[in-house]
């Protein structure tokens, strides 16, 4: 046998297989997910749904079910019977599609939102924004990588504009999260430096995107959690048949009282026994140096706001409280916390994001918090009331006036005293 025939006998099948895979992932594909998969994905809080596209794009395009995106972080996992997804299933004409877990702060949410621009155009959304995100470092690189994949990165790069201060900012943050090596980072460097991607760069992005979109369409229906079956459906029948805010709030208070009767902090008994009690002594005074007023998170929030402006999305922002009894024990400076809330609200309202539910002063209310930092029971009842009113009634068209001064380090590090906020407005916003 000639050498050529020998080589073909060895490598031929592999080459043919690779070519078939390339052809398969290059052909047009139309995979429709079932309604059951949409329902499952809406409350799965799966990183597969968060970082990929096909299920969430299909669900948010489905006008029959009226899915509404709820963006947030770990509080969305607290699925008691007063959770917005349970309340909506019982009483409302929409279905929350949840995007959030521990670590899904504004930067990963930006890439998530960017992948749904067509679906969000002229629609409504709820965005839960926690002051605890606004630490000195902001979102951690491992969390960002866990919730953000190549599909989202390339989707953004495909249309990134090096002349836009917002895209240059995102490019710099992407490099900070991924490191300077790799194809995505090399393309992001060009955008950060104000350079267009070359024709070859764009061809590579399109080819790789096509492969990933096919992969997403085929495999994204797997690896979804069973939150719908475990937490949503069983709790729907535990709610009264007719909606009554006062009655629901009273029931939530009564539920919370029973669920928090083994500690003085108003923390869920199981959470207290497992997570708090073993470290109770060591955590006393542990938060006295926390600071949420200076953080890259303010710039990350700004690119999210710009994305909502681009899609003309009408957004209700929810600022949750912290457990005041616990914060007093751990020594958190509550005046600092309230200043960080003021800074967040200033950034929102200066740019026309006027729908803000500020719950920051509700952290001492009985039954409002499930644990040290997460809303539960009565808190969810209040969030649901505001969300339903916002979603189910006609709202005026938003009039956003985005200002890229909120991307600056001056803003990110500003101590938000009333005088400093007024000076920033005078010096940079007028």
Short description:
Helix content is 54%, strand content 6%. By secondary structure, it is mainly α. It has a single domain, classed as SGNH hydrolase (Rossmann fold).
Helix/strand layout:
Elements: H1 3-26, H2 35-42, H3 47-51, H4 54-61, E1 67-71, H5 84-91, E2 95-99, H6 106-114, H7 117-120, E3 124-128, H8 141-147, H9 150-159, H10 165-178, H11 183-192, H12 199-219, H13 227-236, H14 245-259, H15 269-276, H16 280-283, H17 297-311, E4 314-319, H18 324-330, H19 334-349, E5 356-358, H20 378-392, H21 409-412, H22 418-428
Parallel strand pairs: 1-2, 1-3, 3-4, 4-5
Describe this structure in words.
With 430 residues, the chain is mostly helical. Helix content is 54%, strand content 6%. Strands 2-1-3-4-5 form a five-stranded parallel beta sheet, sandwiched between helices. Helix 9 (150-159) packs across helix 12. Strand 1, helix 5 and strand 2 (95-99) form a beta-alpha-beta unit. The N and C termini lie far apart (81 Å). The protein has one domain (26-143, 223-428): SGNH hydrolase (Rossmann fold), CATH 3.40.50.1110. The chain has 22 helices and five strands.
